[in-house]
Amino acid sequence: MNRFNTNKQGFTLVELMVTIAVAMILLFVVVPSFSGIIESSKERATRDLLVSSIFAAKQQAQSKRRTVYICPTTDDINCANSWGSNWLAYEDEDDSDDLSNGDIVFANVSSETDLIISNELQIAFSPTGHSTANIFQICSNTESTAAYQIQLTRMGRISYLTPTGGCP
User: Where are the transmembrane segments (predicted)?
Assistant: First the structure.
């Protein structure tokens, strides 16, 4: 009878160290590509939020028979002087062409990207569905180029353009 059992199961220290080394190499290769995927997802989400806000504002203007605006905001209460990553959509109840106490804010959106560039500070939708023509650029948080470019026509239609130009 053999006193020493030679059929023991397990890993040697060398096998364990090799496995950990391979896992670390894979981790260093995979993690940077995950951050790119996450950033791309945030840019796409911002694009989709902006387009949804545009469609909601157009629908609200047509159904309520009132002018509806989309404007940038920094404090979630007032319209700002430049586009960033947050915006409001509101019904202009008092026909003042700007956000005031009597107006109804029906969308307050905060996006994951740092910057949206726009030609116009305020986008207006008339009761007929017509809008202020505009081009939006959604900028990447990590690169100095536009990730997406969205065109809004006077008829209130959306089209996606190939991004041109840089972002600050």
Answer: 12-34
Give 125's strand partners. Answer: 68, 131
pLDDT at 23: 93
Instruction: Using the predicted structure, report yes or no on whether residue 71 has a pLDDT greater than 90.
Output: yes
130/124 Cα distance (integer angstroms)? 8
- Ramachandran class of 139: left when φ > 0, alpha when ψ lies in -120 to 50, beta otherwise: beta
User: Hey, what amino acid is at 43?
Assistant: E
Report residue 115: phi and psi, to 5°: -150, 135
For residue 95, give the nearest of 69, 74, 134, 123 by alpha carbon: 69
First to last CA, the chain: 80
CB burial readout 48-68, b (16+ within 10 A) else e:
ebbbebbebbbebbbeeebbb
Per-residue pLDDT tens digits for 26-60: 888 887 778 888 888 888 999 999 999 999 999 99
Q: Residue 123's beta-bridge partner residues?
A: 70
Beta strands in the chain (DSSP E): 68-72, 86-91, 104-110, 116-118, 123-125, 134-139, 146-152, 158-161
* AA identity, residue 50: L
